[in-house]
Each structure stands twice: as structure tokens, then as C-alpha cells.
Queue: 3 jobs
Job 1
Amino acid sequence: MEFTSRRFKDGLPERNPKPSAPIPPSAKIARDAASSAPVADAHSDVPPEDALDELRELTLSAGASVVGEMLQRRDRPDSATLIGSGKLEELQGAVAASDADLVIFDHELSPSQQRNIERELEARVIDRTQLILDIFAKHARTAEGQLQVELAQLEYLLPRLGGRGIEMSQLGGGIGTRGPGETQLETDRRKINRRIRHVQKQLEDVRRIRRQQRSRRENVPVAVVALVGYTNAGKSTLFNALTKAGVYASAKMFATLDPTLRGVMLPSKRQVLLSDTVGFIRNLPTTLVSAFRATLEEVQRAALLLHIADATSPVALEQQRQVEDVLGELEVQDKPQIHVMNKIDLLPESKRAALINTARVVHVSAKSGLGMDALLYAIDEAITEDPVKAARLRIPQSDGKALALVEAKARVKKRSYRASNVHLEVEAPESVLRRLGEYVISES
């Protein structure tokens, strides 16, 4: 167990924190005991320090200040308090010493565990799932995003309702109806279930509208390329770099939740739609995956996935595996993917010079623009919709509309003028050649 107390100002640790109130003797004992035991975490596949760093970033994204951190190793969780009575006493001293009013566990708490811990600490206690739900609620902007967050919160709350005793029961008012009737707990559950059904119906309307929009798009041969990746990997920054969309981008986790679609012109002059999606995270709550299914349908319908990862992160491989797990839940893990290693501008020059791009791995810096052309060419090679074909065209000089279409949508390799016609050798998408059908001499 290791406990460290830190003061933060504007999201960053102060160099010389101001002295706090005198520490009670019990808290001193707790801190001394905490500093001498081994460090570990409940997540065996993630180094404890990295898991704690991620929890700290989530906490700062939610708007809180971190004043203390604690790690623990246990063979098995305690059924009553998760961390055991002895460690709970140490935590109680640490909370008293730092005057904390909120304790966040990087582990899902059962309803009884949460109530037991709150009773001992006399402070509000939440788990990692509640923290993520709070961040989602803070950043949801559109009506759809707010509905999805509300559904996830209600589904999380429902099994955690606590009864308030028989004094809250409704009593019958006639012969044969005396005695406890419906408890307040049952009333609350019925209300939440009713609200869940209402929100689900509204989200189904969203899905229906989205399906209609998608069906109209599918009538035009424009492929959808979905950006996926771990939260804070730089998806929104990359989206802005490719589309100039001006989507809000921030270093905070889950800064953007609402899906955005924008068109991008590839080097072949084909048009694709780029879709920015919500970031994934380790142990993403299942309630969020189900609630955001309407948004994540864009991932399921995409022709290509751009899997964005932070090239500077020491746990980049683990983060990519977590993203693959979520893609598996969505049953899209077999879709074509290009792995985009972002933030290479932060790497030392020697490492950056050794990077090699392939058809499936591209190194970029969305912030500085490094590698954007290579990424566009990689997307162009991976997209099979509306294939590019070589063709010879003969267009009358008087048909300005057809000539403008060629200039806008095709790559002209050779041009010559004979009599009143323009003879062209081009590479163009199949859909463009269909529109120019009467002028096509040959194609291959």
C-alpha cells in the first residue's frame, strides 16, 4: 500500500503546497502504515501506477482536485468493504487528514460495499463507472448525447437503489388490504423503469432517423471511415486536421461525445465521409456501450476504421488491446483497419527518423500536420468502394459542365485538343465515369 498526498491548483500539482490543518494522530499512523507496504492494483494486466495515472486524469477531467492517492494488493476483494476493515481504517485517517469530501475507487463497488464505505468514511464514495458517467454527463451537448448518458445513468442506478425501511411502505385502506403495501423502493424502481423505457423509445427514434440518413447516403457511393481509439489519443485533433471541421478538442478525457460526419477528398479525387466517435477506455462500462450503441452504429457501418493510438504512451499496446476488446463487443473487429500512431512530434528526432509507414500502420502528428499526406494515401489504397479506373474521354469543348466535372473529380494524366473536342486520359472514380458515360471512349 502506498499513500501520497498531493495538492493541485488549476489541474497541476503545486510546487510548494500550503500547509494543511494539523493531522490527527490516527491519520499519522495510517499514513506511516500505508507507506511501508507493497504496491499493486486490482487490474493485473495494467501496471498499478498507470491505472492510477488514468484515474487521476479522469478525476481532473470531471473537475475535481486530487489531494491523495492509495494503492492496495489483496488476494480477493472483501465482500463488505472491498478493501477490508484494516485498510478502511487507514483510508478513514487519510480522508480526515486531507479533508477530502469525495473518495473514488478504481474498481466497481457493489451497492452494499458503497454504503458500508460511506458510513465509515463519512464522505461520498463513488466508483470508476460513476466517475466516467459523470464526465459523460458533463460533456454531452446534443439531445442525443444527453439521452444516451441518462440511459446509462439510470441503468447503473437501478440495481443500486437502497430500501428505506418499512416506515416508507404504503398501507392498504380496506378489509383484506391492511398491512405493508408497496415499499418506497419498489415505487422508485417502477419510476426508473418507466423512465428507462421512455428514454429507450426516444433513442430508438434517433436510430430510426439515423438509419434513414444512412440509407440516403448509401444511395451515393461514398464510403464512411470511422475514427476509433483510446480516449485522449488525439482523434478529434486528427479529425480537425483532415476535415478542418473545428470540432472541440481537449487534452481532457472524453472531451467530445457527440458523433460528427465530414467529407474528405482523397488523392484519387474520391470523396469519403470521416466519422469522429466517442473515445474508448479500459473496462468501459457495459451500460455506456449499450447506451451509445446509436452513436457507435457509425463504426459498425464504416468501410474502414482508423485506429488512433498515442505513439508516446508507454502503455500504447495495452490501450490498443482495450480498443480491440470494445470493437469485439460491437462485432466489428474484422473490419479493415489502419493503425494511426499519433503525436510523433513529441518523440525524439532519432526515434522519429526510424519510423516506417506501411499499408496498415501510419505515423502522424495531427497537431503539427506531419504524415497527413501519407495517411490520406493509405486511406485511398484501403477503400474499395467506388474504385478508381483509367479511361480515355472525348468531350466537346462546348460542354463546360462535363469538363468542370473532370477537373473536380478526376486526375488528368494527358490532355490534347482536336477540332472542337478535348481528348483526355484520366483516372477517375467509377461513379464519375458513369456520369460521363457518353464521352468515354475506353476504360480499364
Note: The radius of gyration is 28 Å.
Job 2
Amino acid sequence: MLWKLTQNVLTTVVVLYTGIHWGIASVPGVYIVLNIFQSTVSHSNFERSLYIGISIGLAYVLWMLSTILLTALLSYVFKPSIGSIRVPFLSALTIRWGFLNVLDRLAKPCIHHMVPSWITDFYYRALGCKIGKGAFVSSDRINDPYLVSIGKNAIIGSKVIITPHLAERDDLVFSPIEIGNNCLIGLKIFFIIFLRKPKFPREYLRFFEL
């Protein structure tokens, strides 16, 4: 009951914060559109439509870039330094993890349009993901990047899902995922960690093709 109440309260906070986060990210684009709108008053309707249309397109791109940058900066500040660990759902660490997940989800629609690029490499690195030299990351679905390490010259295919956490009874379980050098992970592969015992004597990495 306490967990359900906490979830409802946090969900309400998240919904309100989403509007603020995306609103702040939209400021540069809105500024450009307003300036174009005001400076083209004396132009013909066709010219105004052309200039305003282009400014709206640029505003959308700026919104995506601003969302990525804002999310990266906040995540860089708040990302936890954890390894293999098991914690209760109601704990300070899981609340912090949940907040980072919210931030990541706010940026995911933008990351989707940017992969693969230096922009998404910057984003994942800011969130704590280790990406080796020459690695090629084409997925927008890397969860908990601060628990993921990608080796040199590795290739992560499109729509690959990497998830270094799972819910087990009343606990949240974390375990880092390391992808070695020169690895190729094909299209739509699903990584998830399955831990059989709470003291982590052994890790099982299973692969699922969607």
C-alpha cells in the first residue's frame, strides 16, 4: 500500500516536471520563431509562410538538441556510482534511479532521431556510459548507461535493448553490463541480467531476439 501511494505521488510530480523540462528546452526555438514572426510582418503571405515554416522546423531541431543537452547535464550531476547491488524498492537509491530514468525517457524521443551520431555518443557518455574508441552505437534503448561499458570498435545495432537492472520480489537489482572489444550486437537484440542469488556469486547474461 505504501509503495502504491508513493508511486502515485511520484507519478504526479513526474508529469508536472515533464512539462517544465520540455518547456525549458523549447525556449531557444520559440525565441527564433517569435523573432521571425515579428520581422516578416511586411512580407507577402508566401514569404512569411516560408520563413515561419523553416523557423518552426529549426525550432523543433533545437528543442531536441536542447532536451538532450539539458537531460545530459542533469543526469551527469545526479547519476549514482553503483555496481552490483540489491536494494529495496522504497530506498533513496531507487528514488534517485527513478528520477534518472524519468530524465532519460524525456530525452529518448530525441535520441531516436539522432542515432547514430556524435550527439548520442556525447549523451550516453554524459550519463556515465563508457564507449571505447571506434565504437558504433546505433541504439536509442540503452537503459542505465552508467552501468554499461562498450569496448573499442564494438557495434551496437539498431533497436538493441540493454537493461542492467531487474525487479525481483520487493527489491531492485543492478548489475553492470560489459560489452567487449570488436563485438557485434545485431538488430533488435535484448540484453538483461538475471541474478540467481542475492550475493551475486555468479551472473547470467541471456540474449533474446525480439
Note: The longest strand covers residues 189-194.
Job 3
Amino acid sequence: MSFWDTILQAFGLKDFVYFISSSQLQDYLFPAKMIFVTFAFFFLAGVIYFMINSSWLQYKFLEDTAEFFSWKSYGLRMISRRWEKIKKRAQSGADADLKLAIIDADDFLAQVIDQAGYEGDSFDECVKKTGKLLDSVYAEIMSAHEMRNSIVYNPDLKLDIENAKRVLAIYESAINAVGAG
């Protein structure tokens, strides 16, 4: 008799193993096995469905792949497209388009800062929380934000093209700094 047979016999496990593996008990347990297999497939299908319909896979795998092949941060392409729309609006040179471009640029900067995880109660607080990213251009950003507020609260404000381009350049550098950082 082998070592394991002695241990199984001493603890009475040999009879238990024979009972569990008997064909009679397996026949009785077959319906329960089928129910559990059905539940397993149901929950597996649910997991697959929710994985496909959620953005978890995108953030976990596709983001790294996109960054690797494009040599750019993941959201930079979206930032570039939206910024091009703002620049296109400003290129018309019309006073209303320049004002809308500045307002859009300010809103876009606030959105980019928020998406980067720098949250605050006000625009000023959000910009301060970016730290070194926007520290060197903080005063310029706040003057551009004041220009935006002047446009919003004073619709009769006359805006010259050079000043508008300067403000848009400030927003562009800030958006690029936060988006790439």
C-alpha cells in the first residue's frame, strides 16, 4: 500500500472520494451542473457585453497603442481639431467671429484644464492648480480671460484684429502646454 493510500484510509477520505466520483451521484448532480454552466455563460456574456460597450478597454489598451503609433499624447488629436475650428472662425476677421473665437478658446482652455484633472471653483483657481505648466504665462492667461469677460459682459466692445490674435496665441500656447503635459 502506498503512502497516499495509507493517508486516505486513515482519514476516511477514500470512501468519500469514491462516493463523490460515483456515477449515481454524478447523475443526480447533472441538472445542477447544467444550471451552473448556464449561469456561467450568462455572466460571461454580460461581462463581454459591458466590456465592449464601456470605455475601459479604450483607456486601458487602445490609448497606449494610439500614443505609440502617433508619437503624441492620446487626446492631442482632438485638441488639434477643435483648435483648428477656433482658428478658422478667427480667420474671417469679422468682429463677431473674433469675439466668439476668444470665448470658445477660453472655454476650451477651461475644459482641457478640467480634463487634465486640475479642478477648482473658478477659472483662476484651475489655472493656479496647473502649477509649473502655466506658471510662466499665468498673468497673460488672466489678462486674456479678462478680455473674454469684457466681451461677454460688454457686447458693444470693439476688438481689433491684432489684440484678438495675441489673445488667441496666449490661449493656444496654454492649451498646448496643458494638453501635452
Note: The longest helix spans residues 23-53.
